[in-house]
Amino acid sequence: MPAHPLRALREDIAAVKRRDPAARSAVEIVLAYSGMHAVWAYRIAHRWWRSPGLSVAARLLSQLARSLTGVEIHPGATIGRRLVIDHGMGVVIGETAVVGDDVLIYHGVTLGGNRRGSSSKRHPTIGDDVVLGAGAKLIGDISVGSHSQVGANAVVTHDFPEHSVLTGVPAINRNARV
């Protein structure tokens, strides 16, 4: 069940304080963190997306947020609690993406699709407590398990289990048991 909006706002601010050593105060986060602004706009747009007759308004809000923050989150995506987008410029989260709780996303990350069609799952599913490094590209209907780390500029095109450490092009699990 989604958190009450005020509780969710407090959780988001606390998550940034916990994950970003440069965050000095709640006021600074509320006023100056474009990643948070993008997440908050997404949360409104997602509600509208699920309401009859408001899908166009949801898309317009998401595009306004993209122009203001550099972060594009489709209002149809499903995003958990306490998402932190740090230095968010260039982040793209596609329509059928699912992002778990306590995920940290750095700049230039793409959760993209690899085929057309609106009735099927086309974008990645990310577990809880995952870190997506700068420039990482996760493409298609794949899953990255909870408590994983995806390195900078890794290209992930197939499923990986929990506790993975993914690096390279194409990504391999550096934490896999030999």
TrEMBL record:
Which Gene3D superfamilies does the record cross-reference, listed alphabetically? Hexapeptide repeat proteins, serine acetyltransferase, domain 1
Sorted alphabetically, which Pfam families does this protein's record hold?
Answer: Hexapep, SATase_N
Q: Which residues form the Serine acetyltransferase N-terminal domain?
A: 7-39
In short, the EC number is: 2.3.1.30
Q: In which pathway does it act?
A: Amino-acid biosynthesis; L-cysteine biosynthesis; L-cysteine from L-serine: step 1/2
InterPro entries, per database record:
Hexapep (IPR001451), LbH_SAT (IPR045304), Ser_AcTrfase_N (IPR010493), Ser_AcTrfase_N_sf (IPR042122), Ser_O-AcTrfase (IPR005881), Serine_acetyltransferase (IPR053376), Trimer_LpxA-like_sf (IPR011004)
Catalysed reaction equations from the record: L-serine + acetyl-CoA = O-acetyl-L-serine + CoA
Q: What family classification does the UniProt entry report for this protein?
A: Belongs to the transferase hexapeptide repeat family.
NCBIfam families reported in the protein's UniProt record: cysE (TIGR01172), EPS_EpsC (NF041874)
Name listed for the protein in its UniProt record: Serine acetyltransferase
Supply the source organism for this entry: Gryllotalpicola kribbensis
| High-level lineage | Bacteria, Bacillati, Actinomycetota, Actinomycetes, Micrococcales
